[in-house]
Amino acid sequence: MSNPSTATQAGIVVLIPVYNDWTSLHTLLRELGAVSFAQGIELSVVVVDDGSSQPSPSDLLDGLPAGSLRGLEIVHLHLNLGHQSALAVGLSEIYRRHNPDLVIVMDADGEDRPQDIERLLTAHQRDPNAFVVAQRARRTEGYWFRVLYGLYRLLFRLFVGKGLDFGNFCLIPRALLGRIAFNPMSWNHLAAAISRSGIGIVRVRTDRGTRFHGRSSMSLPRLVSHGLSAVSVFLDVAMIRVLIFSTLLMSAAVLGVLTTLYLRLFTELAIPGWATSAVGLLSIIGLQGLILSTIASFLVLRSRSGDQTVPAVDASKFVAGVERFLRDD
Q1: 143-155: per-residue pLDDT in tens?
Q2: How does DSSP classify residue 168?
Q3: What confidence score (pLDDT) does residue 5 get?
Q4: 3-state class of 88 per DSSP?
Q5: 3-class secondary structure, 235
Q6: Over pLDDT 90: what percentage of the chain?
């Protein structure tokens, strides 16, 4: 746990990563304030400015109901780390300087709906020792994005052996915050790190909201990078599956070569020239399997022996400063 002498009791902290999308953040803060005021929930907000090229505006709290939020804090990063690493920095800063009962992670664009926070809290009350994640019941993206996202989920299941059916929108209890803050895997992909943590997960079905402003910046390269980041959390599992596949491929190639030689030397079934071509093709397949298995083996060893970024230890190096907005009413 954080040192009580330096931490402040923060109740429920909402963590929001932002890259230049200050207009959407302003709208989200107003909706969070309305939800907080209507439901009697005390919320504090920590925003991680992921190296935005546009400065944060000074009127972010304008239009909020009086007393709806306890405060707003913006953690500015030296550079753009990417969505997942920015989340890891934010969680580490909350762990290090706050003492929250709960942390709720959500995006600023409006697709994570503030009104669903109450559902996450209700699920947490039923199982207070588990992560609570939002599982999408309905998506609003375009056709091709849904197709590519479905392909990503299929490949993830193929490489890892299980699905990943939730994203960043989640609730993290105080007792589990350190598990994430000190987990190197959360630097690459928060949802995958939660999935691999071995701790109970409660899923809450939610609809995806409509974006406040603009269009999604999740292009094909970003989606591929996002998928690879998720797989990297299970790199050893994925590479072991690749190793098993490549070993089976080599075994099949060797068996094919032996069968071809037998047919060529001891039977009358071989057609002139056919055996040589078959042995050559199978040898190439076997060599590819050997190369693939070798690479997979070294990647598994590298993942277990290499230096890893531990957010709770390394995150503060990326923080350029903290800007605090406090309400007097």
Answers
A1: 666 777 777 778 7
A2: S
A3: 34
A4: helix
A5: helix
A6: 41
What's the mean pLDDT when you consider all of the chain?
A: 82
325's enclosing H/E stretch is: strand 319-325
Predicted TM-score of the model (pTM): 0.80
d(CA 251, CA 247): 6
Q: What pLDDT does residue 139 have?
A: 56
Task: Name the residue among 93, 110, 56, 53 with its Cα closest to residue 180.
Answer: 93
CA–CA separation, 229 and 33 (whole Å): 33
Q: Are 168 and 190 in contact (CB under 8 A)?
A: yes
Q: How far apart are CA 257 and CA 119, in angstroms?
A: 60
Phi and psi at 46, nearest 5°, equal: -115, 120
> Where would I find the H helices in 111-189?
117-126, 143-160, 174-181
The dihedral through the CA atoms of 68, 19, 87, 205 has a sign that is positive
DSSP secondary structure string for all residues of 51-81: S-SSPPPS-TTTTPPTTSEEEEEEEEESS--
The token pair that represents 119 in the structure block: 């559902």
Higher pLDDT pick, 293 / 301: 293
Given the structure tokens 């003492």, which residue do they identify? 99
Does the pLDDT of residue 79 top 90, yes or no?
Answer: yes
DSSP, collapsed to helix, strand or coil, labels residue 213 as: coil
What is the three-class DSSP state of 41? coil
Cβ 181 vs Cβ 105: under 8 Å:
no
Going by C-alpha positions, the residue among 96, 108, 16, 98 that lies closest to residue 317 is 96
How many other β-carbons are positioned within 10 Å of the β-carbon of residue 32? 24
On the question of pLDDT at 273 being above 80, the answer is no
Which residue do the tokens 């609809």 mark? 207
The Cβ of residue 209 has, within 10 Å, a number of other Cβ atoms equal to: 19
